[in-house]
């Protein structure tokens, strides 16, 4: 399809000359599998063989036998647009080379009728093999036919868009059977990286959506425990239906029965043009699998896994951990590593032994990978947007990822009414999320500002305190209360400063402790001292001293608060006692009572005076705090000198 | 988010275009939420939906606020394609932004391939009349050339903000009714033909 090299499209005979020698190379391998394998492969394998050979000429092909089993070439073929040319070139070359290929040649002849009719014969031969492969073969053949027609029509078309159109044209003709793509960018039959890119999971896990959906479905407990898992055939039309949905990114409804989910996953894996373990590395994986020492296997596998492309590694980790989860439920589903490998190793294009080895090590190989159920980005029909800033950010990332994908698809020419609607909708959700995030950030800022202002110079507090002072200026208990509240605030202001160095210290000690860094503990102070050469020595020391000083300050403030509280308590008691003998006071006050106007003036005077004093006190308070901080800084420097 | 499926009130899709910093987002936010944002933050793309009453009929307006910067031109086409009406905004205090409208117009016509697409030329920041760089008659001449209305707005004072959106929606609406008439007209023709046949029989 679109991703194939253009020169093949343009020059159908380009590889014809290579085909001959590729064939002779291939023919040996062929005899390995042609006995028990599908007839048509012989031809296809040959054809791909030359493509592959072209790529890895001279490479070790020790895994050839495996390929025979699982026939990766078939998959390669399906995605190749040059089928028609191939059959032509094939005929041409086959007449040329005759050495020791009698068998395969006979079969080649058979392939012709086979292509017209679904693979009946192959079925008989393949019974022991995976059953559902037949579906695919049929499907592939249909696809092949389709492509051939198309290629004949549009041999010289290069652009994907045109490709797409041609498919739509075909649909109108009614010639296309099941694999009509609204989009020239299928998910099935392309490389893992392409499939991942084309149908992303928008939560940052690089898996093609179809794989994720299938695994999500199968990871449910009832699925894992079901004895149908990986054993029962799905309804073929259903399977193809879902394949088409995913290929068209139309997957609103995800898979909802076990056989279809299993087969869809297998179908995806089988149609990969290259094994998950990559053509380059699969042989080395096989070597490791035959290694006698199990302990060494793991480290070697680890090293090989490092070399895999990231998306391959992710895919491998997910499917293996999923398969592991399946065999954990052997009691219910009657599948153990051996039997599951029997069922699935051909799909994965690896030997039974390798798959068993991978299954046995997978928990250790991928300790960080967790199979998390995919929560797709919200849509307008979702109940509501998240409120928590972190959730908003997560959702925003998903939506952004989705938007990027929509844009790239639209830029590539995939434009439908539905897509456009989705584009606006996603954009709208993003805008809303951003607004929400911004307003919540503003709220946070505001509350921090408020906190700051109440800590340093609380105007709100002041005004709140003043009325209390006003109401009962003669009340002796009011003033200390205000003072006490100020002090509590003051002491509250300490923790942030205190916590910061503490955290730093923690981080520092965490950061420094794991490597064997030499340090000594000062006996007098208990400080951790790094060796003199360590550049972080001073920092660490300073922070420790600062921490101590701040702790002292905090204790001092705490004791003061306690003292003030005691004072309040004492005064309250005193006040209550005074109230008990009320008769004495009025007589005195009556005598001193001035005229109305004087009274008001005095109140005003005291109010102003009090406000002024309160303000002064506030200023002095902050000044005191600053001085104290400077003091501590100096103290720290002083003590630094001691070390 | 849409509270009702699309089967509900009519939906008009409006797209804001224009150079960076001319006040597309300010106009949009003023229209949407009655707020004026002083601080400038470049938009990549934002989309809003609002229910409004247009001449007694409840309709929904989708507003897409696009990026003025060229950096996002690649994604702009995707939006232009689905837009039904355009507000082409420039700042009357910035001649370059006025000159750029020409290009935006061309871009839209290229994508939509339709000369009579609902379109308004909007001169924003009319509260800064003392700093005006683009003479009024020049704007009117250009609008006449394109045969589109010209309106001056101020996102700050809300002057004409509702007007531009509502005027554009009216244009979109009349355009849609025209289109549907055209198609139903064709349908009528077909009916006539059939009837003719019947009478012949």
TrEMBL record, chain A:
<feature type="compositionally biased region" description="Polar residues">
    <location>
        <begin position="474"/>
        <end position="486"/>
    </location>
</feature>
<feature type="region of interest" description="Disordered">
    <location>
        <begin position="1"/>
        <end position="175"/>
    </location>
</feature>
<keyword id="KW-0343">GTPase activation</keyword>
<dbReference type="GO" id="GO:0005096">
    <property type="term" value="F:GTPase activator activity"/>
</dbReference>
<dbReference type="Pfam" id="PF00620">
    <property type="entry name" value="RhoGAP"/>
</dbReference>
<feature type="domain" description="Rho-GAP">
    <location>
        <begin position="192"/>
        <end position="393"/>
    </location>
</feature>
<feature type="region of interest" description="Disordered">
    <location>
        <begin position="453"/>
        <end position="496"/>
    </location>
</feature>
<feature type="compositionally biased region" description="Basic and acidic residues">
    <location>
        <begin position="96"/>
        <end position="139"/>
    </location>
</feature>
<feature type="compositionally biased region" description="Basic and acidic residues">
    <location>
        <begin position="20"/>
        <end position="62"/>
    </location>
</feature>
<protein>
    <submittedName>
        <fullName>RalA-binding protein 1</fullName>
    </submittedName>
</protein>
<dbReference type="InterPro" id="IPR008936">
    <property type="entry name" value="Rho_GTPase_activation_prot"/>
</dbReference>
<dbReference type="GO" id="GO:0007264">
    <property type="term" value="P:small GTPase-mediated signal transduction"/>
</dbReference>
<dbReference type="Pfam" id="PF20924">
    <property type="entry name" value="RLIP76_Ral-bd"/>
</dbReference>
<dbReference type="InterPro" id="IPR049041">
    <property type="entry name" value="RalBP1-like_Ral-bd"/>
</dbReference>
<feature type="compositionally biased region" description="Acidic residues">
    <location>
        <begin position="1"/>
        <end position="10"/>
    </location>
</feature>
<dbReference type="GO" id="GO:0031267">
    <property type="term" value="F:small GTPase binding"/>
</dbReference>
<dbReference type="InterPro" id="IPR039767">
    <property type="entry name" value="RALBP1"/>
</dbReference>
<dbReference type="InterPro" id="IPR000198">
    <property type="entry name" value="RhoGAP_dom"/>
</dbReference>
<feature type="compositionally biased region" description="Basic and acidic residues">
    <location>
        <begin position="146"/>
        <end position="160"/>
    </location>
</feature>
UniProtKB/TrEMBL annotation, chain B:
<dbReference type="GO" id="GO:0007464">
    <property type="term" value="P:R3/R4 cell fate commitment"/>
</dbReference>
<keyword id="KW-0488">Methylation</keyword>
<dbReference type="GO" id="GO:0003925">
    <property type="term" value="F:G protein activity"/>
</dbReference>
<protein>
    <recommendedName>
        <fullName>small monomeric GTPase</fullName>
        <ecNumber>3.6.5.2</ecNumber>
    </recommendedName>
</protein>
<dbReference type="InterPro" id="IPR005225">
    <property type="entry name" value="Small_GTP-bd"/>
</dbReference>
<comment type="similarity">
    <text>Belongs to the small GTPase superfamily. Ras family.</text>
</comment>
<dbReference type="GO" id="GO:0005886">
    <property type="term" value="C:plasma membrane"/>
</dbReference>
<dbReference type="InterPro" id="IPR001806">
    <property type="entry name" value="Small_GTPase"/>
</dbReference>
<dbReference type="GO" id="GO:0005525">
    <property type="term" value="F:GTP binding"/>
</dbReference>
<dbReference type="Pfam" id="PF00071">
    <property type="entry name" value="Ras"/>
</dbReference>
<keyword id="KW-0378">Hydrolase</keyword>
<dbReference type="GO" id="GO:0007265">
    <property type="term" value="P:Ras protein signal transduction"/>
</dbReference>
<dbReference type="GO" id="GO:2000648">
    <property type="term" value="P:positive regulation of stem cell proliferation"/>
</dbReference>
<dbReference type="GO" id="GO:0022604">
    <property type="term" value="P:regulation of cell morphogenesis"/>
</dbReference>
<dbReference type="GO" id="GO:0007298">
    <property type="term" value="P:border follicle cell migration"/>
</dbReference>
<dbReference type="InterPro" id="IPR020849">
    <property type="entry name" value="Small_GTPase_Ras-type"/>
</dbReference>
<dbReference type="GO" id="GO:0045742">
    <property type="term" value="P:positive regulation of epidermal growth factor receptor signaling pathway"/>
</dbReference>
<dbReference type="GO" id="GO:0031623">
    <property type="term" value="P:receptor internalization"/>
</dbReference>
<keyword id="KW-1003">Cell membrane</keyword>
<keyword id="KW-0636">Prenylation</keyword>
<keyword id="KW-0547">Nucleotide-binding</keyword>
<dbReference type="GO" id="GO:0030165">
    <property type="term" value="F:PDZ domain binding"/>
</dbReference>
């Amino acid at each position: 399809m679109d991703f194939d090299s253009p020169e093949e499209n343009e020059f159908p005979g380009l590889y014809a000359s290579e085909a001959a020698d590729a064939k002779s190379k291939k023919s040996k391998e062929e005899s390995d599998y042609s006995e028990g394998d599908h007839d048509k492969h012989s031809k296809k394998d040959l054809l791909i063989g030359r493509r592959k050979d072209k790529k890895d000429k001279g490479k070790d092909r020790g895994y050839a036998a495996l390929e025979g089993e699982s026939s990766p070439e078939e998959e390669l073929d399906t995605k190749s647009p040059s089928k028609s040319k191939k059959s032509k070139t094939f005929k041409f070359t086959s007449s040329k080379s005759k050495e020791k290929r009698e068998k395969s040649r006979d079969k080649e002849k058979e392939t012709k009728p086979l292509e017209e009719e679904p693979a009946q014969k192959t079925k008989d031969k393949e019974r022991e093999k995976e059953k559902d492969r037949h579906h695919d073969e049929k499907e592939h053949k249909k696809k092949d036919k389709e492509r051939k027609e198309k290629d004949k029509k549009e041999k010289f078309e290069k652009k994907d868009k045109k490709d797409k159109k041609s498919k739509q044209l075909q649909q109108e003709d009614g010639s296309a059977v099941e694999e009509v793509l609204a989009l020239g960018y299928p998910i099935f039959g392309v490389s893992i990286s392409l499939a991942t890119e084309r149908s992303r999971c928008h939560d940052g896990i690089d898996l093609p959506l179809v794989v994720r959906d299938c695994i999500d479905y199968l990871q449910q407990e009832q699925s894992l425990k079901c004895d149908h898992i990986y054993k029962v055939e799905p309804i073929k039309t259903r399977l193809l239906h879902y394949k088409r949905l995913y290929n068209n990114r139309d997957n609103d409804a995800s898979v909802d029965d076990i056989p279809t989910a299993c087969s869809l996953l297998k179908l995806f894996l089988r149609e990969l043009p290259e094994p998950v373990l990559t053509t380059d590395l699969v042989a080395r994986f096989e070597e490791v699998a035959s290694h006698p020492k199990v302990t060494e296997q793991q480290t070697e596998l680890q090293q090989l896994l490092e070399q895999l492309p990231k998306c391959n590694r992710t895919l491998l980790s997910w499917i293996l951990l999923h398969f592991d989860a399946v065999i954990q439920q052997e009691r219910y589903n009657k599948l153990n590593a051996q039997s599951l490998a029997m069922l699935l190793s051909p799909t994965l294009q690896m030997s039974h032994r390798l798959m068993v080895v991978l299954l046995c090590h997978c928990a250790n190989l991928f300790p960080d990978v967790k199979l998390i159920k995919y929560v797709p980005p919200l849509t307008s029909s979702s109940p509501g947007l998240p409120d928590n800033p972190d959730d908003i950010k997560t959702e925003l990332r998903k939506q952004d990822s989705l938007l990027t994908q929509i844009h790239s698809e639209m830029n590539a020419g995939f434009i439908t009414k539905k897509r456009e609607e989705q584009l606006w909708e996603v954009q709208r959700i993003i805008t809303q999320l951003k607004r929400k995030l911004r307003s919540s950030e503003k709220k946070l800022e505001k509350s921090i500002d408020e906190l700051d202002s109440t800590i340093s110079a609380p105007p709100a507090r002041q005004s709140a305190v003043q009325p209390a002072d006003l109401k009962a200026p003669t009340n002796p208990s009011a003033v200390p209360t205000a003072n006490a509240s100020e002090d509590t605030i003051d002491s509250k202001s300490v923790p942030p400063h205190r916590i910061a160095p503490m955290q730093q210290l923690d981080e520092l000690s965490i950061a420094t402790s794991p490597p064997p860094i030499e340090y000594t503990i000062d006996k007098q102070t208990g400080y951790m001292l790094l060796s003199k050469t360590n550049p972080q020595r001073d920092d660490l020391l300073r922070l420790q001293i600062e921490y101590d000083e701040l702790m002292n300050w905090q204790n001092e403030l705490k004791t003061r608060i306690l003292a003030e509280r005691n004072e309040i308590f004492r005064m309250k008691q005193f006040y209550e006692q005074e109230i008990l003998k009320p008769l004495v006071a009025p007589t005195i006050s009556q005598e001193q009572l001035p005229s109305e106007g004087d009274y008001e003036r005095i109140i005003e005077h005291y109010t102003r005076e009090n406000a002024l004093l309160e303000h002064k006190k506030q200023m002095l308070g902050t000044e005191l705090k600053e001085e104290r901080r400077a003091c501590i800084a100096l103290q720290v420097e002083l003590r630094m000198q001691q070390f | 988010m849409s509270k009702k499926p699309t089967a509900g009130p009519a939906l008009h899709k409006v797209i804001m275009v224009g150079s960076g910093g001319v006040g597309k987002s300010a106009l949009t936010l003023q229209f949407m939420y009655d707020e004026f944002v002083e601080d400038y933050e470049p938009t990549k793309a934002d989309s809003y939906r609002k229910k409004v009453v247009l001449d007694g009929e409840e309709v929904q307006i989708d507003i897409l606020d696009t990026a003025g910067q060229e950096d996002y031109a690649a994604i702009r086409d995707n939006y232009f394609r689905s837009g039904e009406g355009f507000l082409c905004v420039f700042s009357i205090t910035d001649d370059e932004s006025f000159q750029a409208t020409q290009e935006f117009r061309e871009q839209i016509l290229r994508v939509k391939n339709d000369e009579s697409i609902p379109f308004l030329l909007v001169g924003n920041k009319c509260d800064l009349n003392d700093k005006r760089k683009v003479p009024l008659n020049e704007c009117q001449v250009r609008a006449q050339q394109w045969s589109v209305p010209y309106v001056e707005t101020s996102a700050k004072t809300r002057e004409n903000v509702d007007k531009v959106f509502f005027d554009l929606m009216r244009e979109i609406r009349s355009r849609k009714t025209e289109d549907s008439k055209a198609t139903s007209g064709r349908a009528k023709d077909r009916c006539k033909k059939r009837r003719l046949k019947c009478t012949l029989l």
